[in-house]
Amino acid sequence: VISAIFLLGAVLAGYFLVESIMNPIRFQKEQNERYQATVDELKVIRTAQVAYKNEFGLYTKHLDSLKYFIETGKMTFVKRIGEVPDSIYLQSGNDLAKAEKKALELGLISRDTITQAVRDTLFKEYDIEKFGFVPFTDKKKFEMDTASVDAGGIKIHLFEAKVFNSILLNGMDNQLILNLDDDAMKNGKFPGLKVGSLEENNNNEGNWDKEFDLKK
Q1: What is the per-residue pLDDT across 166-183, written as a single tens digit (0 to 9) for each?
Q2: What is the torsional sign of CA 211, 142, 168, 119?
Q3: What pTM was estimated for this model as a whole?
Q4: CA nearest 122: which of 204, 51, 56?
């Protein structure tokens, strides 16, 4: 009986030892999977916001408005007709903008404004029904807002879209989620994933590691 008890104890100790090693590994693997899918969706939001601002001069804080823009909106493009002679480039110090302006004044080139559907231009392969929803959740939406800051007298429009780890990683090991959040906050980072910023002009960068930009 004593031998059986010791054997059972050894088996249980071995099990808990293996679990203590494997649980963080499984957590990391699932976290990476959820992060990758979420980063991809945040990039879609960023692409749509940039297109929206190009058309209307500012960002929108409403996901529904952004989705409607993707589905029905149009993008305006200015197409150059003709070529700028090399001599004009040289006279303009190889400055493309100055060269095109000079060639336009001389009638050597012209411009034509065309419009194309946003959906057909930027989101041909994208499933619009996924838009705005956080992957691996029960239809939870990203938080999104807009702001503006003054930079040397110039008003700069900003947007931010984000999701907390507590929502994105819901259902996973709670203690490991708390550890992840604690580590992020100790390093002055957002405890989750986000793109853009409401405090500074960060060129709409995301806060994720660069490995998630290498789509698998």
Answers
A1: 999 999 999 999 999 999
A2: negative
A3: 0.79
A4: 51
Own/partner contacts of 114-120, CB < 8 Å, gap of 24 or more, are 114/76, 114/77, 114/79, 115/74, 115/75, 115/76, 115/77, 116/74, 116/75, 116/77, 117/73, 117/74, 117/75, 118/48, 118/51, 118/69, 118/70, 118/73, 118/74, 118/75, 119/70, 119/71, 119/72, 119/73
Q: In terms of Cα–Cα distance, which of 135, 181, 139, 143 is closest to 160?
A: 143
What pLDDT does 190 receive?
Answer: 97
> Using an 8 Å Cβ cutoff, are 138 and 123 in contact?
no
**2-56 and 63-72 helices cross at what angle (nearest 10)?**
60
Residues paired with 172 in a beta bridge: none
